[in-house]
Amino acid sequence: MHILVILKMVPDVVEELEIAPDGKALNTDYLRMILSESDDHALEQALLLKERHGGNVTVVAFDAPEVDDTLFAALAKGASRAVKIVGAEPGMTTSGAGRLLARILVQEPALLPAGLVLAGVQAIDDLDALVAPLLAHQLAMPYLGIVTRVALDPSGETASVLKEYPGGVRGEFEVRLPAVLGIQGAEKPPRYVPVAKVRAAMKSQKIDTVQAPALTGGDLRLVEVLGMNKPQLTGHAEMLEGSPAEVSSRLCEILAGRGVF
Amino acid sequence: MTGEIWVLTEQWRGRVSEITYENLALGRELADALGTPLVAILLGSNAKDLAATLGKADRVLYVDHPLLEDAVPQVLAEVLAGLAKEQMPRAVLVPLTNVGLGVGSFTAARLQAPAVNFCKDVRVHEGRLEASCVMYGGKIESTVALLGSPAVLGMWPGARPAENGRAAASPAVEEIQVVPREAPPVRLKKYIEPETGDVDLTRQDVLVAVGRGIQARENIELAEELAQALGGAVCASRPVIDQGWLPLSRQVGKSGLTVKPKLYVALGISGAPEHVEGMKNSGLIVAVNTDPQAPIFNVAHYGIVGDALDWLPAFTAAIPRRKSQHA
Amino acid sequence: MPDPVAYTLLGIPGWAWLWLATLTACGLFGRRVLGYVKILRGARPEKRWDHPGRRLGLVLAHVLGHRRLVEEPVIGAAHLLIFWAFVCYAAGFFWSLLRGLFPFLPIPYADEPRWMALLLAVFGLLGLAALAVAAARRYLFPPARLEKSVDAGVILALIAVVLVSCLAGMWFRARAPALARAMWWTHMITVLGFLAYLPYSKHLHLLASPFAVFFASLRPGAVTPSPAGAARREEFTWRQLLSGLACAECGRCDRACPAFQSGSALSPKMLMHHIKQLVRGPAAGNGAAFVGGTVKQEEIWACTTCLACMQRCPVMNEHVPVLVEMRRYLVGEGDMDKSLQEALTNLNRYGNSFGQPPRARAKWTEKLDFAVLDARKQPVRYLWFVGDYASYDPRVARSTCAAARIFHQAGAEFGILCEAEQNSGNDVRLAGEEGLFETLREKNLKAFGKAHFETIVTTDPHSYHVLKTEYPASNGGYAVLHHTQLINELIRTGKLEIRHKLRMTATYHDGCYLGRYNAIFEAPRRVLEAIGVKVVEMPESRTYSYCCGAGGGRIWMGDAPVFQQERPAERRVRQAARLKGVHTLVVSCPKDLVMFQDALKTTGLEEKLAVKEIAELVEQAMG
Lengths: 261, 327, 623
Description:
Radius of gyration of chain A: 22 Å
Low-confidence stretches of chain C: none
Oligomer: heterotrimer
Number of domains of chain A: 1
CATH topology of chain A: Rossmann fold
Strand order of the largest sheet of chain C: 3-5-4-6-7
CATH superfamily of chain A: HUPs
Distance between the termini of chain A: 60 Å
Number of helices of chain A: 6
Strand content of chain C: 5-15%
Shape of chain C: elongated
Helix content of chain C: 40-55%
Low-confidence stretches of chain A: none
Largest interface: A-B, 86 and 95 residues
Mean pLDDT of chain A: 90
Structural class of chain A: alpha/beta
Strand order of the largest sheet of chain A: 9-8-7-10-6-1-4-5-11
Largest sheet of chain C: 5 strands, parallel
Number of helices of chain C: 26
Order of helices and strands of chain A: EEEHEHEHEHEEEEHEEEH
């Protein structure tokens, strides 16, 4: 079965995030990009399915800083093809990207048909849409999000999918294929791929580039960012300082005072 | 074009979720500011009784269909979008929870309407709807304007206190016949309950929560000792559960439980919104984290910058002494 | 004595029987040995023909001189005697065999000339005495980890028979010729049998060990530069496979190993045994049956790469390189402890194992009241390669700042690379991620290329080791110093003034990468002496120092399930605490500092003992 995985690079929040002088975007000076965490899980889930049932995995991503490393790592992990979309409007919103992506999936040969399209359930910068339901809508496929397990049914026409609900409850769904799934977590944590294998992939494999077509009507931009700021703190903790012994003793007093014991 | 403010009711296991009331409270403000009615949309099967609690709204639009029993996002969105297309409200507030994730995106896509996610506040400014969205794991807030109608607002839990969204009076209920298309290609087979742990977190007075900062499975023992000394139980944020160090029944947060103990001790938890949503209403929150910028300190009452592993034994040891002094 | 080979049995003359026995024994011996040689030739190549003079010196010292064996004096002396008795008797045997096979040769039998008979008698008796000692030790007072195999007993018995038959033969020659002849045949047949049996027993080490010593690594602890790793027999190098054949199962490695002593699954001796089985077994099947199957993952990951095993091994076996090859295989499969995976992912992305942003690497300098130079922006004399733990771990910050103040006070013009510094890669390499090591090294070398300096100094011994041995010196070369060496020099040349001597008694822990790997023992001791610290040595010090348990990437992996008993660091602090009058344990490695601080907590010795990095003490004495 052919599985498509949509990958997105997002700002790495390990570095401190700074806001650009115009106040409407992130300062890119020290910004680094990293693969969105749930997309990493989506890739892992796809690879697990491929190992179990055969077939191949194609990863697709928009051009962004450090995306090449991510795509080569995906190839080193076992994806058979990596496609990078170049020439898209800079600063596209998720909804614009989603519509463009759907167009490309349909136009480019050999991307579709796919039995499954996997994407992370959401990314930390998905301001105006989630890409998985958007794709499902554009491609007229069924969708389920917050998925933590995918098993192909023997018939090959449906999949059994686990979705997370509140309170630790999960729902087991039957989804007709082809389908789009928003992955929350793969069955196993994303595998490690040694640097030597990624470098080998860089030498022996290549990333296919696809030129982004113009979108009729462009990126609709129905949402306008007026400003960005670090959150106003409605409150902040009173910080306790000192050695563990001192802090513990102070804390005990506080708790006693509040009637905890 | 009605220009109304709509709030999508979220119902889970036969009850209306808290977030619905939070959104009704917010919706009421917006509706009043715009001088338009507030309408609660209730989609379900044999769920009319639930409408009684939605009195904060001016009226309830109810659609009954067996296909709406299980909250399959595409089906809900199809119905919601259909209604919205006909009636053209000004905005639709949709909960961004595990139950309804995807409904907002589908609805917006079908209507070719603007959508925003991660909203924690919405207001009317110069006749325009502006939303505050929490992004990048809680580190950055964006203020965005919605250009177009209807605006689909994906609401994060906690936008307003839920009490403000409840009302004594029952609203008028208008039932509409809508028939969704043939059986959706997504079908719920069954629910899987979490293994009932020995402990019901929602009934504990004291919870000691462990996050990534606990570093290793064997360190959870230290947290257990503290929990015992305090007369409570251990719970965890998602990363710890994902590692398999504690069972699912101990998860607090978006995909886990919402708890309100008297004391919540957060150890090595960064404070990402998904977790905070599950514990923010705790009576007293004490957080320990090595990162002074960790978002948890914005929601905690007392904070300690340090390694939980260093600090735990001292605190555990201090308690019995204190307890005996006090007694 | 009548000529024993003239004796006829079943109508066939003795010399014909002798030919038959000899050809059979040689055939069996040869076939087996040639089989081994073929397997070794099919394994991965490794260059070990360089410096033949040095290598010969090693054989003289370690094979003929038993240098490492005599470190355990009683058995060392006994083994030395048995060895020389063996040499003497081997000479005698071949002499007699020659005469026996070619009866027309005008030479006597070996025990006929008086001088040879005397030699045989003396060595025979000494040898028997030594055998008695060895047998007593093996059966009555066995040391820990001595492999009590039937094989060993058989060998002791065979050697005894060889010696006794020769001695008895000499004794009976004049008195009972028929008996003497019987003894001669017993002797020859036993030795031939021994020859045939040898390649099938653990005494293959007799044949393999001189070669193992000759082909020893001249840079102990060095590993091959290939990322691929090994799981199948032919993927190991021939010298690694030879280790299995040369191993005599003496157990010295186990007795020295901190991972083994702490109850982990790893036994270096068993590891060698597994390699032996791999060589002897059928052509290796699926690699995972060996790495992960026969050799369990817990064994492979438990090693701290302290090198104590390799340092004690009398046949210079290569336990650590073998483990690293297996780790490389596991890493290639993505099969490892999750904490290690996280550390490696962080190292790849951020250049440090903490997952902290690179920009925060120089944040520790904010605590100082002077500015620290950026070596990329202005030329400095010393490039201080600070290291991850010294930069990012708050527990180490104090000693890092102390070192900075020392250099500043002494006018040692230094600078750091700030965010361009990456982890040196030593432990990454030994954890099996060779590709990541190469990437880190590349980035560091690039940063060095942009900076202007004369000498590199580092406070981190792991970094010291890899910078010195695996980073090529470019642009005419640069030297690498450990900070104790630099401080020693600064004190010696008067650049660093010691205003008030400390007047204290302390003990010093020789970190593995400074001591065992690089023989830096004196510099820290001189420094301590100069600042007025009286050093009381720990029972296991210098090259016998006992590892803190952090090396080989172990500091990035979880502890508890691995070490069932007292952890290495706990044992070490207990050793230190037992020393009379000692309340301070001095270290010169940031990982030692962190491991021992933790161990003091878990052993409850915090009141009794304090751990100090040497720079902290020097700073105090500096005034």
